[in-house]
Amino acid sequence: MSESPLPFLPFALPEIGEDEIHEVVDTLRSGWVTTGPKAKRFEQDFAAFLGEPEIECIAVNSATAGLHLALEAMGIGPGDEVITTTHTFTATAEVVRYLGADVVLVDIDPATLNIDPRLVEAAITPRTRCIIPVHYAGLAVDMIAILDIARKHGLRVLEDAAHALPTTLEKELIGTMGSDATVFSFYANKTMTTGEGGMLVTRNAELAKRAKVMRLHGMNRDAFDRFTAKVPSWYYEIVAPGFKYNLTDIAAALGIHQLKRIQAFQARREQIAAAYNEAFADLPLILPPKAVEGDVHSWHLYVLRLSDAAKIERDAFIEAMFAAGIGCSVHYIPLHLQPYWRDRYGLAPEQFPHSQKAYERSFSIPLYTAMSDADVQRVIAAVRRIALA
Ligand SMILES: *Cc1c(COP(=O)(O)O)cnc(C)c1O
Q1: φ, ψ dihedrals at 12, nearest 5°
Q2: Of 117, 261, 262, 291, most Cβ neighbours within 10 A?
Q3: What is the pTM of this model?
């Protein structure tokens, strides 16, 4: 398929260093491979990174698990509605259905590709319980507006921050904005990785307590602790039919060192994004929206959109990139086009004109820390050649 003499440049690759490898080997030699001291340390380090030792950080084996646990702890269930963006990965919405509640999808603001707060407010019904904003590509949602709407209507807010480490809004890290809970992803292609993993972050002690119990089979030792001076090590009580969502120490070992590098990772991503922005400014392309001055974009994704002046179609663009030996992707095929969501809620593209247009004209190009400067130049040259052809 590739006409390039160079090796194929994948769309995404993790950057795993010697520190991560040594920590994983240390875990393997320790005899404690599942959830234990390293998962605990990773949670503590994460709270310290957020700058709030009091914030509860709950390590889980995926962001999907964290989103599910947060909604479960909020008591979301049948008859409830949860509002989110159509321009996301299905994980954001599927967790709502796990609990028997319904998903109400709304369109994006074409300027930011993030959920449009005005459409959120218009979608509220007496059954609405929660809003799930997604910080698309790593650009912060207008959380001031979302939290305002939630306060006004008595709704919960769960941030899907799978793309948003270390994104900031008004100089505050996402995760500290004052929503009920925030969930980060450490999937292989995210801004840091544990292979598979996630972190549920909350200041709500009740929510944290429930999520911790449900993370591991509905097992509770704390209930017993309160009444007895000494709990036998083998004793536990099952208080609910919980899940198996704990993060292993093997994965946490990776996370401890990836987290130490997150600001350096972001700086490199920023550098690549700046090189792309400069190189593509004169092309018939809409560049990705930037963070406001003084705030941080995590640059998880670099999404280009063909402008109305472009002569090439999106699919052909991606095909030409692959022919040049460069992997690209599309984020996302909106949920309103996916058979399950489309058919369950009878959705049509006309209801989501901005997401639909963004989908039809957008593609994501490689942007990750393991790219060399030569890789970046190669991507730039290919995009310029194809866009100007
Ligand atoms: C990756 C991703 C998730 C799911 O993360 P996992 O850790 O793979 O479960 C959820 N939402 C969005 C927007 C994502 O990109």
Answers
A1: -150, 150
A2: 117
A3: 0.97
